[in-house]
Structure formats: structure tokens, C-alpha cells
Amino acid sequence: MASRTPADTGVDLDRAVLVGKVNRRDLLKRGAAAGIGAAALAGLAAPRFAPRASAQGITKLTVLTHWGEAAVKDALEPIFAEYTAQNPGVQIEHQTVAFAELLQRITTGRLGGSAPDIYHFYNLWLPDFAGSDLVAPAPAAAVADITAAYSQGTVGGVTYNEGVYGFPTEVNSYQLIYNKQLLQQAGVEQPPATWAELRAAAQKATKKDASGKMTQAGYLMVPTKGWDSGVVHPWTSLLWSNGGQYVADDHTKATFNDAAGLETLQLELDMIKDGSVDLGLVMEDFIAGKAAMITMANWWGAALRAGMTGGIENVGVR
Counting C-beta atoms within 10 Å of the first and last residue's C-beta, which end of the chain has fewer, N or C? Predict the structure, then answer.
């Protein structure tokens, strides 16, 4: 959504698995997800953790992901099976942990000398990982595949110091997600397309009981405690919609506190002050029907499908 009036964009909440003939360079690409804006990558471990060959000439590859959900894991496992069937000299061990445990698993594996050969991790960790030699740049053939298959912005998400470190495997876009039923009940016929419409819709969709206690929030902001990105990413989405940038193009200075950033912060403060935001709510409260709108990413689609009040048909994306 934007402070100006953008075209309505309906983003599919599914993680689409790319298909095609499997070869050694295509293994990770086949598991890639499509979308807008790189959010994670699959990177090779540094050379000291090279694939291990057994006495029988079998090469074992260990792949670590946070894709433990059946919807994603069930799509990935057949790809591994197909690859090993076409390459009998290779065995793949797929390890998976919850995202909240992923960073600790990577760092402890590094310290213990048992790091996987291929990681799937959050691209904001790339500078630290590359700086500590935990990951190695992708081979030239893989880089050629990556730069040919993905947009410049997506490739930028897996690039550090001009080195490409892996395949973009999750591409996420933070947009306005809304409860269709709650907006309709509030008399909001169309989802907001400008900041002024967002504030007005949030105020209309806010409900309070006789004591003044909020029973339904017009807009949900993720609490700051425990998940910094839950605050930063939605705010950055609003910043971009206001024509701002988080850092300068040449990365020489932060620009999030320029005029566009201050206007974005003021928007959130105004919504808190006018009572349309309850900072005590969490993301699950939107699923439970306690908030009409939230800014969140398409990776949340599985949770919405599994438990959204009124079903996934009640979810709209702007």
C-alpha cells in the first residue's frame, strides 16, 4: 500500500516451487520460491567444510533449512530424491530446524566443526557469515544461473561485496493484509490505498467496550519485544511506499531518518495516539479476528490458511 495511489497488487501467498529438469546446478533452483524482494538464500559452506567422500566414492551433502512445514518439506524432498537418482554417487541429508533456532544451529555447527555443506538462511546474516568465512561465494557456473534467472533486485539480496553467495530461495513482499469481513462490517468498501485511507479505515474498524477497552484493533503493529524484524520490515514497507530509502544507494549512510522516514514514523505514532492500534496484540490475534489490518509478508500464508477466522477467503492483500 502507498501514501500515493498505487495499482492494486494481488500477491499469491503460496511459495511456488520452480520446476524443470534437475542437474547439478539446478538442485537448489528447483527449490526456489517466486515473489518480490529477496529474503533468504541458500549458500555454500566455506571450503574447510567441503563435501565428504566415503571409501565407496559416495559424496554426502548435508543441507540445512528451516523448511520443516509439511507443505514446503514435502515439495523439497522429492527434488532431492530425483537429484540423487540421477547422480548415484551423491547422498543428501536434509536437516531442518525452526527458523527461531536456525541462527544458533548454524553458529554452533560452525564452532563444533560439523557445519552443513549448504545452508538456507536469512540474507541479513550474510555480511557476518561472509566476513567470518562461514560461507563461500557460489561457483561461477551457479552465479551465471542466478544472474540469468532472477531480477537485479533479487540477485542483490544474495550479493555481498560484489560476490554472489547462493540462490534466492525465499522472496517476500510486505504488504497490507486485511480481514475482509471486519472492514465490511466497519463500512469500508475498498481496502485503503493511501495513508489517509489507512488511518480512516483503522479508526472505523476499531471497537471498544463500554469501559473503553479495545476489543478489536483497526490496525495491528507487531510488538517490539522478541522480534525486531517484525517492527522494522513493516515500517520499511511503509517507508518505501512514501518514496524513502533505508540506506543510500552507495551504502555510505543511513537515510531512514530523512524526511520520508520521519513521516513514516509519524504515521505510526498518530495511529497509536488515535487509539486504532493496540500494542498488546500479536500476529496470532489477526488470525483470531481481533484486528482488521496488518502489514506482513507472504511467508505468513501457511499460518493464515491453517487458522484464519472465516477461512483464507476472508484474507485480502493490498
Answer: C
